[in-house]
Amino acid sequence: xxxxxxxxxxxxxxxxxxxxxxxxxxxxxxxxxxxxxxxxxxxxxxxxxxxxxxxxxxxxxxxxxxxxxxxxxxxxxxxxxxxxxxxxxxxxxxxxxxxxxxxxxxxxxxxxxxxxxxxxxxxxxxxxxxxxxxxxxxxxxxxxxxxxxxxxxxxxxxxxxxxxxxxxxxxxxxxxxxxxxxxxxxxxxxxxxxxxxxxxxxxxxxxxxxxxxxxxxxxxxxxxxxxxxxxxxxxxxxxxxxxxxxxxxxxx
Length: 252
Ligand SMILES: [Zn+2]
Known about the structure:
Layout: E1 10-14, E2 21-25, E3 29-31, E4 36-38, E5 43-44, E6 54-56, E7 63-65, E8 71-75, H1 86-89, H2 99-104, H3 112-127, H4 143-155, H5 161-173, H6 177-184, H7 193-204, E9 212-215, H8 216-219, E10 226-228
Antiparallel strand pairs: 1-2, 1-8, 3-10, 4-5, 4-9, 6-7
The structure holds zinc ion (ZN).
Zinc ion (ZN) binds next to loops.
């Protein structure tokens, strides 16, 4: 079943544990206009919200990947309520996982890629408290959040250039400023040069705050820029933002 491309379409899934029907926004077309990328790689696109890929079921309290949940169908904005689909209309929305919930979900990460996705998502939720520009203070960190950051540093040690940018940011948030420059030696593609030079500057100033990295204007979005988001399997960090200012894409 291919997802519809209508804005406002909803996906109906069943919780794999208790089979409760649940609804969430269907991945669809959107515009990247107005997007902002933060220094932790998180991209906020007001006209293209990224649906959750993992959720808490309000029926049984369990956590499940959207991709591991059977698809029941789609509700379009103009779908009419009938006797057959009444249960769908009554379905509750999936529960959104917070910082702690995403760490709780680690038991569902079979592969290192899925573990990294959940750990980065949890880090983003803790950073959400400080998404202001210019920055005021560094995001507060619990012991669990610090351990999460250290694990992100370990998991990205041998990663590609995008992962090394995540690693440099995590090191900076941990106050390990000397290691930021060391890690960024592995980033040489000119596309990443603006992100790299900003990271080096903040690290040299021993600044561990979250910054707005790129805004829509710097990204050079065309008025009609559009992209399709699919629901990729766990471990694919689509929607993870990008450190590449030219062709901001959800593919990483
Ligand atoms: Zn359930």
